[in-house]
Amino acid sequence: MGYEAETWWSRFEQPSLHSWAEAQEPMRLLQKEAKKYDPDPKALSCYGLYLPELGRTTWLRFVDGRPVSAITTQFLSWSCRKLEELGKKALLMVWDNASWHKSKFVKEWIAAHNRRVKERGSGVRIVPCFLPKKSPWLNAIEPKWVHGKRKVVEPAAVLTAHELADRVCEVFGCTHEPHLSIPQEVA
Questions:
Q1: What Cα–Cα distance (Å) separates residue 117 from each residue in 84, 110, 111, 140, 183?
Q2: Going by C-beta distance under 8 Å and a sequence separation of 6 or more, which residues neighbour residue 163?
Q3: Residue 24 is assigned to a structural domain of this protein
Q4: What is the pTM assigned to this prediction?
Q5: Number of domains the chain contains
Q6: 62-96 residues labelled b (16+ CB within 10 A) or e (exposed)
Q7: Quick check: 49 and 2 in contact, CB under 8 A?
Q8: Tens digit of pLDDT for each residue in 52-104?
Q9: CATH assignment at residue 106
Q10: How many H-runs (helices) and E-runs (strands) does the chain carry?
Q11: Which of 6, 37, 40, 47 can pair with 75 through a Cys bridge, CB separation 3.0 to 4.6 Å?
């Protein structure tokens, strides 16, 4: 069983948090602004799959751009390959009703993927389970996002996109994999 969701990791917005600090030196989170010459995006989109039965493992993949159906299928394909390496046969995947989860493209991709797995007799089938609308608290990965955002906060400096992604991966104990992207069409 896995819980899948996406989130944005901001380089500028500070999460709400409480912290212990020395009496005379309370921690101050400074408001940050993007510089005109900063080539990095203001925030990074990230897919995550929380697998509580595999030692509470969370797999992450960052996205160049935003979550869309074509990126979702790349993430699912990557996740299935990793699960197959672990000897798993199926993924009961709990996720929300994001448009890129319930799109025709993703539904057809999952159906075709499951047919290929059945025909080959190997691979990992995907059984999607949609959560009720407006119920993110039922997805076990959501609290992990909140705690992760608090752990990667930088009080005064602005992290580069790569530094932020590295910190996030460190917090979740996973490798910073190459970012998912859709190839640009060449004229």
A1: 11, 10, 10, 27, 26
A2: none
A3: no
A4: 0.85
A5: 1
A6: bbeeebbbbbbbbbbebbbebbeeeebeebebbbb
A7: yes
A8: 999 889 999 999 989 999 999 999 999 999 999 999 999 999 999 889 999 99
A9: 3.30.420.10
A10: 4, 5
A11: 47
